[in-house]
Every structure is written in C-alpha cells, then in structure tokens.
C-alpha cells in the first residue's frame, strides 16, 4: 500500500521550487498556541540573562531585575503578551498610509514635548494580569489624538473595548487584534474611563487583579450614577495601517500623534532597563502592543524608536523603552495601526436659539 507521507527529498525539492517565500517567516507575531509550555512555571526574571546582556559588548542596552516582574512566572509573562496574528483576510481591505519623501522630519521627536498640554501622552498605565495590551495601545493612542486634534484631555475606557468588542477583536484577556480595536472605535466608539474603569476602586474584580484574569463582562452601563453609556462614547473616523517604512511611521506620528505598534517579545525584553533594545538572548514569548511616541539617535549614532509600555513605571526606563529604528527589530515596524478622532457624539445638546453646544468630555 502506498504511503501518504511525503519523502524528505521531495519535500525539500518542493520548498526550493516554491522560492524564498516558502521558507521565510510569514509573520513576526507568534501564535501563542504553538509556543512551548516547557519551563512555564519558572520565573521570567533570570540572573543569567541579566549577566549575558550586561557583558555583551554590542548589546547597546542594560538589563536589570525589573520589580514589575519580580514574582511573575514565564506562563504569566506570556499571558500578558496579548497580540494575536491578524488573519490575512482581515487585512485585505485595511487602507495603508504612506507619505511623500519630500516631507521634512526632525532628527529627534518626542510627542510628550511636542504636545505638552496633552497629559495622557506621558501617562504610563498598567495592564495587570490580562493580555489586554492590544486594547491599551489602541485606547491610549486614540485619547492622545483627541487632545492633539481637539484639545480634549480625556481618559478613555480600556474596559469598554476589552469587554464589549467580543470575538471581532479576538479573545479579550487572552489576546486580540490591534487593527480590530480601531475598527471598534469606528463602529461602536469607546466610553470614558470614568464611565467604565479598568480597575475597580473596591472589590477588585477587573482583569488587573490577582489571582485570576478573566475577560470582564460587557455591561454597557456607566459605573458613575447619572452618566449615560451612549452619551459617553468617543469615536474614530477610520482605522488604517501605516506603511512599514520608517519615514512613513515617523511622518504619521509627527502629523497626527502616537501610533499603536505590535512586535515580538523575547525573554530578554522582560529585563530591559535602559538603552536601545535589540534581541540578544532568550526564547520567543509572544506578541505585544505598545504606543510609539517618538524617535531619535544616540550619541553613538544608533537610531531608535521611543515607546511607552503599559507595565507601570516599575518596568524599564520609568515605563518607557527604546528599540532600534530602521531594521524592523522584532517586527516593530511591520504592524503599525492608528485612526483619526471623530467629532461624532462630541456635542450632546444643541440650543438652536443660542447656537451653543455642550461637548462631552
């Protein structure tokens, strides 16, 4: 009887014939289901990794015992890396923004100083024990852009997006798709954080709490009395990707504000303290989403991106980190998404006689 198994020589022949596309990694964001579970009960912070980084002649960054992950196991660390690989069919109809090369950009840029009146840009949040980075990155960028374009300092609700987007965005605390978060903003909007906070003030039943991290239930009801859910919604005009060329990413940030980026996280990233990160050692852990707020070049001539993480200020450089710019390190330039804030629902009441509107903030 003929075997259904393909011989190794034939398999190699087919791969060669298919060209380099067949052997190239298709996507930097790993599928969490394919990641090994070996060693998941061990601590994510390892002295050996710190020593390896700090003794490496060309590392370019410093590793340390980050307090934020002092008690985290490898399994817990993997869980908070909540970016799932976006299905290709989803990306087919997502517009991609590019910018003319004639656009002049500064050699260094920091959104915190460029729009110093926007308090949210410099706010470092904490996602807790939930794989909600995909939601945090999106909400943070949208609220920053409301301030940049409409001069509105508002805090928007990660919990609304996390709990109510449902399967369209992925699996809540078990990970999601950044571009679908922005599509949720277009279709459904997102309420203020005051209306639907991520952390409860008492009782601690939201996803940042120990020991469990279930996806919250979508209640569509403000926690504050006399606030109406639908009236507290803030929307995005659109949802788009930014071309992976560094010039296009820089131009987008320079003109419109911070963007959400997804990248692959390795074990050594948990140990980042300062400097310009590049992967040196350790296995692949998962996909993570953060907020890109600027760029620059070190005194040594190394180009970098400046990003805000959501692991509180006890991690990294006061909650921020830098990563090499221009080489697509860990896929950092490959999955950049954003959208523009909308005026929809911003005016709740309109007095036709006086022509005075009341803005929702």
Automatic annotation (TrEMBL):
UniProt key word Cell inner membrane? no
Keyword Ion transport assigned to the entry: answer is no
Task: Please list the GO biological process terms of this entry.
Answer: proteolysis
Q: Which keywords label this protein?
A: Disulfide bond, Glycoprotein, Hydrolase, Protease, Signal, Thiol protease
Q: Which InterPro entries match?
A: Papain-like_cys_pep_sf, Pept_cys_AS, Pept_his_AS, Peptidase_C1A, Peptidase_C1A_C, Propeptide_C1A
Look up the domain of life of the source.
Eukaryota
Gene3D superfamilies for this protein: Cysteine proteinases
Q: Which GO terms describe its molecular function?
A: cysteine-type endopeptidase activity
Question: According to the UniProt entry, where is the signal peptide?
Answer: 1-25
What region holds the Peptidase C1A papain C-terminal domain?
105-340
Query: Sorted alphabetically, which SMART domains does this protein's record hold?
Result: Pept_C1
> Mind telling me which PANTHER family this protein's record contains?
CYSTEINE PROTEASE FAMILY C1-RELATED
Query: What is the similarity comment for this entry?
Result: Belongs to the peptidase C1 family.
Protein known as:
Peptidase C1A papain C-terminal domain-containing protein
Source organism per UniProt: Oryza punctata (Red rice)
């Amino acid at each position: 009887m003929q075997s259904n198994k393909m011989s190794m020589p034939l398999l190699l022949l087919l791969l060669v014939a298919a060209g380099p596309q067949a052997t190239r990694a298709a996507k930097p964001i790993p599928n969490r289901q394919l990641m090994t579970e070996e060693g998941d009960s061990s601590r994510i912070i390892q002295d050996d990794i710190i020593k390896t980084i700090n003794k490496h002649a060309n590392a370019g960054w410093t590793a340390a015992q980050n307090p934020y992950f002092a008690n985290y196991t490898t399994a817990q660390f993997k869980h908070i890396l909540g970016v799932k690989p976006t299905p290709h069919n989803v990306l087919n109809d997502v517009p991609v923004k590019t910018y003319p090369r004639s656009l002049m950009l500064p050699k260094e840029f920091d959104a915190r100083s460029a729009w110093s009146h926007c308090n949210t840009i410099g706010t470092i949040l904490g996602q807790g024990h939930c794989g909600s980075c995909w939601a945090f990155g999106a909400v943070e960028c949208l609220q920053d852009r409301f301030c940049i374009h409409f001069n509105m300092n508002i805090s928007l609700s990660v919990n609304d997006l996390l709990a109510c987007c449902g399967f369209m965005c992925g699996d809540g605390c078990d990970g999601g798709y950044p571009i679908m978060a922005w599509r949720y903003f277009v279709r459904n909007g997102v309420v203020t954080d005051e209306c639907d906070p991520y952390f409860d003030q008492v009782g601690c039943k939201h996803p940042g709490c120990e020991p469990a991290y279930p996806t919250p239930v979508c209640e569509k009801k403000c926690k504050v009395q006399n606030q109406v859910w639908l009236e507290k919604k803030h929307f995005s005009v659109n949802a788009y990707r930014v071309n992976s060329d560094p010039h296009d990413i820089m131009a987008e940030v320079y003109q419109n504000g911070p963007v959400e980026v997804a990248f692959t996280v390795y074990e050594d990233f948990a140990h980042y303290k300062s400097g310009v990160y590049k992967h040196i050692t350790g296995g692949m852990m998962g996909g993570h989403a953060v907020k890109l707020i600027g760029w620059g070049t070190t005194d040594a001539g190394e180009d970098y991106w400046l990003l805000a993480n959501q692991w509180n200020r006890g991690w990294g450089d006061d909650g921020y980190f830098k990563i090499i710019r221009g080489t697509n390190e860990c896929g950092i330039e490959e999955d950049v998404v954003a959208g523009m804030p909308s005026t929809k629902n911003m005016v709740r009441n309109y007095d036709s006689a006086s022509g005075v509107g009341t803005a929702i903030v």
